[in-house]
Amino acid sequence: MFDPYPDGLPVGPEWVSTSDTVEIRFPFDGCVVAQAPVGTPELARRAVDEAAAVAREVAKLPSHVRRDVLTGVHRSLVEWRDELEGLLVVETGKPLVDCRVEVARTLVTWQAAAEEVARLHGETVPLDLLPSGEGLTGFWVRKPIGVVVGIAGFNYPLLLASHKIAPAIAAGCPVIVKPAPQTPLATLWLVHLVREAAAAAGAPLSMVQLVTGDAGVGSALVTDKRVGAVSFTGSAAVGHRIARDAAPRKTLLELGSNAALVVAEDADLDAAADAVLRGGFYASGQACISVQRLLVVDSVAVEFTRRLLARLPEVVTGDPRDERTRVSALIDERSTRRVLDWISASGATVAAGGELVDGIIRPTVLTDVPDGADCWEEEIFGPVVCLRRVSDVDEAFDQVNASRYGLHASVFTTSLRTAMRAIDELEVGGVVVNEVPGFRSDTMPYGGVKDSGIGREGPRFAIDELTVTRMAVIRA
Fold it and tell me: For residue 317, what is the DSSP state?
């Protein structure tokens, strides 16, 4: 099951052997899943050499060829769907239900990217708005930005890599992807499927490459002057460093958040509690738009908290291979220890959970969380929800906006006025009304503001980011 692609790394048209490998372990019980190849900065520079060498060829690929590659990948993913779901479970430790969602969303992403190839076009420009433009014809077209580097996080490795690779192919850009060191396997398989689809469509294999490795590999990729754009998903600290290192090349940064959910005084409390259970603990809390900060208007706070805590046992913990499991072990011991340390140092009241049982952090609800606590101010990336009472919706919105992050937020209310105020006033990339802040359709523009990043994903919007306008002016 775990040997569906050649040995080594896909660099250039071949798979290149590496001198070093690393054990990939199942986070739940620590057993070895596979030996993964480890790249080097030298191999990263070689990948850029290869990408630069085919950049013009890839840019000139006809639309039907690019679409054929994308649809070919989609067909292969459908064929291997069950196996990919199983691999994601043991590679990430994420519950099976979440891995199924990841593969389903990956399929949508590749299909949407294929459809967007037909919509990649420009417009005419009325140059004669100035007298000097009389007799001139003007129009603009979109051209590929060049070599793309995509760096993905560990929590959704197949989906995040797809959001880098598929739009790059649609735009006509060669792409080099670097998966997270903990989770390279599904991405290696994906790149193998992409290269098979490229070969079938008559496109160069070097249009998609993959290099694993540490920060030195990432630095070699993002600082190369031949790179046109870097698309990164990960922590704010690393993203900010990449932006500095890559300048003046374009960077697209999806840097996470500490997503807020507001419960207004007129909210459906059962629906809001259900949203916290679904949105606070999926992927074991390792999602950048999972519910972390819960702001509840004081008049309904006691009843809402009672309903939430009464239902918390519904969040089943255990082996991620079990279909009933919703929370399992985090990606590694260091992450687990950090989350527990943040809980103990928060100064908050532990209303539920907060302890480690059989290597799994129990679903945790903290109340009375003070300002300055890491679990309120930063992204905890674990199964922890922090509940704070506020006097009214005005205070709730102020608290949402007080964060340095701004990816998604949600509000539960039956008032259209409150909903529209949230859309108008909350300083985030997406406002979700009466649903979890973790809702994401992979065809919508997705990204944040402030320290949550810059640029937008979603095939249509990522393709725009990975192309540049070229203006044409003609005097007949």
Answer: B
Task: Write out the two tokens for 452.
Answer: 């949550």
> Among 457, 467, 441, 455, which Cα is nearest to 170's?
467
Please count the other Cβ atoms lying within 10 Å of the Cβ belonging to residue 138: 15
pLDDT at 2: 54
Domains and CATH numbers, the chain: 9-255+452-475 (3.40.605.10), 260-441 (3.40.309.10)
Looking at the chain, the whole-number percentage of residues with pLDDT higher than 90 is 99
Of 50, 91, 102, 288, the catalytic one is 288
pTM for the structure as a whole: 0.97
- The one catalytic residue in 91, 102, 116, 254 is 254
Token readout for 395 is 């205070």
Question: What are the distances in angstroms from CA 468 to CA 62, 443, 462?
Answer: 18, 21, 12
Which SS3 state, helix, strand or coil, does residue 407 take?
coil
Whether 254 is catalytic is yes
Strand 136-144: give its sheet, edge to edge: 123-125, 136-144, 467-475
Those residues whose C-beta lies under 8 Å from the C-beta of residue 198, and which sit 6 or more positions away, are 69, 204, 205, 207, 208
Provide the b/e sequence for 199-209 (b: ≥16 CB within 10 Å). eebebbbbbbb
Asked about 288 being catalytic, the answer comes back as yes
Q: Which residue carries 């140059």 as its tokens?
A: 127
Q: What is the pLDDT of residues 123-146, one digit of tens each?
A: 999 999 999 999 999 999 999 999
**Under 8 Å between Cβ of 176 and 194:** no
Q: What is the dihedral of CA 238, 113, 159, 407, to 10 degrees?
A: 50
Beta strand ranges found along 90-200 (DSSP E): 123-125, 136-144, 147-151, 175-178
